[in-house]
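Z., the sequence and structure:
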Amino acid sequence: MTLSEKIQQLKTHKVYGRYYGVGLLVMLAFLFWAFFKILTPDNFGSWEALSYYLQYSIIYSVGACGVYFIVTMGLFDFSIGANVVLSSIVGVILSKTFGYPGLIIGCVITGIIIGILNGFIYVKLKIPSMIVTVGLMLIYESLAYFVAKGEKQSLASDLRGLGVAPGNIIVSAIMFVLAYLILKYTKMGTYAHAIGSNENMAKNMGVNINKYKVLGFVTQHFFVGVMAILAVSYGTSMTAVTEMSSMARNFTPLMGCFFGVAFRKYCSPIVAIVIGEFIISIIFNGFVALGAPTTIQNLITGAALLIIVALTLRSVKGTVVK
């Protein structure tokens, strides 16, 4: 038996097959860690640093869990970063009066409202989701600027507990479990995969396509709203941006989501997302430790995104971007 045949047998094994994806991702994380550790042993990869990489990556993992619900339907949303900015600013402003409840409710409710608007406008206009969400991104950026009055909004020092351990880990763990339960035990999770695999067949089976696309956007932006809580608590402030500058915040959760799509055959996509975002964090911090300029980091990010997308689309044949 050849090596490739042994690997294929391992993938399809009743017991070991489900752990194949997790094992592969863990091995990739170790290889990237070892690579950068060898190159810069004094500046990278200590246990303390790994804890920092993990806490940084789970911010994006939460958002990526939400993004998965629409990407698996063949949709894309470029207003994720604008949501993070607008939700964070609303949350910080409300926190000045209502404390933690203002921060949490402000971010989450703003995220849900954005999800409703995105889903409703996409369904009604019947044009590609990428075009719709790029236009909405510009609107949300402008709203954030007006809400913040052009000023940086800083979170009070006594309200930053969700940006450090154990607060951020607890919130993230709750969101990961919630995402897993939605995917595993609700119609939203079942129909999201059905719509992405074959929308016409799902429609013929009686699935209300438009309803679940709207719910997909709402679910996504609920998670992105929680991501905003973690992001502003970690970064301690948020500044409104314009001219599509918020788009830079889209790609890290999107790359993590693609890990979930690519490895869902072998393990839970939520597990793949969390490990995938950790790998991305290791790579980014590895280049920082090497002193690589921003242009090189952007080059690697772009190349990684293209490779992940290529592998993902190859593993999910028949998916059409809508």
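The chain has one domain: 54-312. The chain has a mean pLDDT of 88.

Let me know what you think.
H.
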